[in-house]
Structures are given as structure tokens and as C-alpha cells.
Design brief:
Length: about 350
């Protein structure tokens, strides 16, 4: 059993300068500077492999650089996720001095698609910000949330990444949001997206990470060509391809701690108890252990040869079905399994 979280993902502020179609929303309030500083010490004591700092838009938090500096003093490996609109030359210089790696969210290969998804954003500005970060050696990846309205642009996103000088593209599954049902890919569309990603990576030479537990199962089942990135890109975890629900910690803006950034359940709040105590409760929770056990799956997952390497996204499955142990409704392999059972 793993005794430390793979990583800690901290939504450090709910403040944001954009209005995105896929925004999951945030609870009101953020941790005080004093509590945030104590939390950094608690995170360091857990020895996660890395820390993701996101929002909202993290650059809108006034004490961000002070907190990032403290994280680095604690020798934490820090990755900042930003929408790129506020990345001035001075900000980039400060981030470089602190030794922070940057991931910039770009959810479309064209101005029309990108600006329709991210209300208030400028495609030209985000591309320039990404180029500036790449030039300074800060850009770790472009992050793209996959929606029905942008997955056809996957080849273009790879071409854009190559032109920017981005070493990787991270594709992230859509989190529950206001228009979730209308934007969530079907199993067929997920299968097509995976095929497009594999083809575009081969053609451009840009590395990628596809943040879905069924990705590698689909690649193997369909005989596609894909390669795991050589280095970590902040979000990815390369030692397992399966869902890591309950194996890392997500800290909400108000201090709620969750077993996954998708998760509708909270494990506690850091304003009420230390993060280390919450993590120990995670390790000892029979309910969470049951969720993490692939043998508890029902439906198509039970007969899937890739179950151990996948487990299906638990949080999404619960949001869509109301059942923590059901098969992942978005899995492309469910189509084949359903046909075989039929």
C-alpha cells in the first residue's frame, strides 16, 4: 500500500478573469495566507512526488509568489496551471527565478473554438504567453480539456503545440460542469479522440498524456501506436495507467480535501484538521479501499481483460450513474464488450 499521496493538487483561489464553458465552479472563499503557509508545511511532510497549483486563475491570488517561494524552500516540485492571460514578462521572470514549471490551458486550435470555450480570453495572447514561457524554458505542457466542441481539432492542437515549442500536450477529461451532458464525449467520440491523438503525436513528434484510465486499454485493444512521455508533466503519473482515485489529494479553494479533483465527496477540511490527519483517514477508510479495488466493479468492467490497468474513472462514473462501482459509461471498450455480451 502506498503511504504517501502521488501528488497534491491545490486549487489555490476561486478568483478568475475568464468565464469558461467547462468551468466546474468553486466554493466561495480561499485559505488565509497564514493557513496556506501552514498547509505548505503539511504538504511537505507528506512528501508527494509533486504539487499542482491551480485555480480559478492562480495568478490572481495576491500572495501567490510568496506561497510558491515557500513551497520551493520546502523543496516541493511545483507545477502552475494558468490560463495564460496574466503572464507578463515580469511574471515569467519571477516564476523562472522560483523554479516553477508552467502548464497553460489552450482548449482549441483556432481562435473561434478557443474563445467560444473560454469567455473573455484572447487566442493571440495565450499563444504569445505560451511562446514566451517556452522561450524561457518554463513551459511544461499545453493542457486541453476535451469537449464535443473541440475534440475534432486535436490534430491542430498538436500542430499549435509544435509551433509554440511546447514539449507536451496533456488531454484532460471533462469535469462535471453546467453543460456536462452536452459537452461530454460519447464512447464512440472518445475512441475517435484517442485515435486522433495517437496519429497526431506520430506526425508532429510532440509528446502527450491522455488523462483517462481507459486510454492505454483502448490503445492496446485497437493496435494503435502511442508512447508514454519520458518526463512528468505535472498532471500525469506514469507508474500506473489505472484510475488513481484516493491515491492523491485535491484541495479545494475553501480547504475541502477530496480523493480526486472530479469527486463529489469531501474527506475533511484543512481549516478543521491537519492535512496529514486527513490523509491517514484516507489510508484507513474501508469505503475508499473498496472503491479502489477493481474486483468491486460491476457491468462491462467485470469481463474486461484490462480492468486492473484501468478501473474506470470512479468520480465520473458516480456522477453519471449514482453508483461508485458501475462501469465507466464513457469507455470506448464498453461498445465491444456490450456487443460481445449481446
Amino acid at each position: 500500500m502506498r503511504i504517501t499521496p502521488h501528488f497534491v493538487d491545490w486549487a489555490i483561489t476561486p478568483k478568475c478573469d475568464l468565464s469558461c464553458r467547462h468551468c466546474r465552479g468553486f466554493p466561495e472563499g480561499e485559505l488565509s495566507t497564514e493557513r496556506a503557509k501552514k498547509l505548505i508545511a503539511e504538504i511537505a511532510e507528506l512528501s508527494p512526488s509533486w504539487v499542482i497549483v491551480e485555480g480559478g486563475e492562480p495568478l490572481l491570488r495576491q500572495d501567490l509568489f510568496e506561497l510558491l517561494g515557500l513551497m520551493r524552500q520546502r523543496q516541493l516540485d511545483v507545477h502552475l496551471v494558468t490560463n495564460g492571460m496574466l503572464l507578463t514578462p515580469q511574471t515569467i521572470t519571477t516564476l523562472k527565478q522560483l523554479g516553477i514549471r508552467v502548464m497553460i490551458s489552450i482548449d482549441g486550435a483556432t481562435p473561434i473554438t478557443y474563445e467560444a470555450i473560454r469567455g473573455g480570453a484572447s487566442f493571440d495572447r495565450v499563444v504569445q504567453s505560451a511562446r514566451n514561457c517556452a522561450k524561457e524554458g518554463l513551459l511544461e505542457a499545453i493542457n486541453t480539456t476535451i469537449l464535443k466542441t473541440n475534440y475534432a481539432e486535436i490534430p491542430g492542437i498538436f500542430e499549435l503545440a509544435a509551433s509554440i515549442g511546447a514539449p507536451k500536450v496533456t488531454f484532460i477529461g471533462l469535469k462535471p460542469c453546467k453543460e456536462y451532458g452536452g459537452e461530454l464525449l460519447t464512447p464512440q467520440q472518445y475512441g475517435e479522440a484517442i485515435k486522433l491523438v495517437c496519429q497526431a503525436a506520430q506526425e508532429t513528434g510532440v509528446e502527450f498524456f491522455f488523462d483517462e484510465p481507459f486510454f492505454w486499454a483502448t490503445v492496446r485493444e485497437r493496435g494503435l501506436l502511442a508512447q508514454m512521455p519520458e518526463e512528468s508533466a505535472g498532471i500525469l503519473f506514469t507508474s500506473t495507467t489505472a484510475c488513481i482515485f484516493g491515491e492523491y489529494l485535491f484541495i479545494e479553494t475553501n480547504g475541502d480535501v477530496k480523493p480526486c479533483s472530479f469527486s463529489p465527496i469531501s474527506l475533511g477540511n484543512v481549516n478543521e484538521k491537519p492535512l496529514g490527519e486527513i490523509w491517514r483517514e484516507v489510508l484507513s477508510s474501508p469505503f475508499l479501499q473498496q472503491i479502489k479495488d477493481p474486483k468491486t466493479r460491476t457491468g462491462y468492467c467485470q469481463s474486461c481483460p484490462h480492468l486492473e490497468d484501468c478501473k474506470g474513472c470512479r468520480s465520473r462514473t458516480f456522477v453519471l450513474t449514482g453508483d461508485w462501482f458501475a462501469s465507466d459509461p464513457c469507455c470506448p471498450l464498453s461498445l465491444k464488450l456490450a456487443a460481445e455480451e449481446g
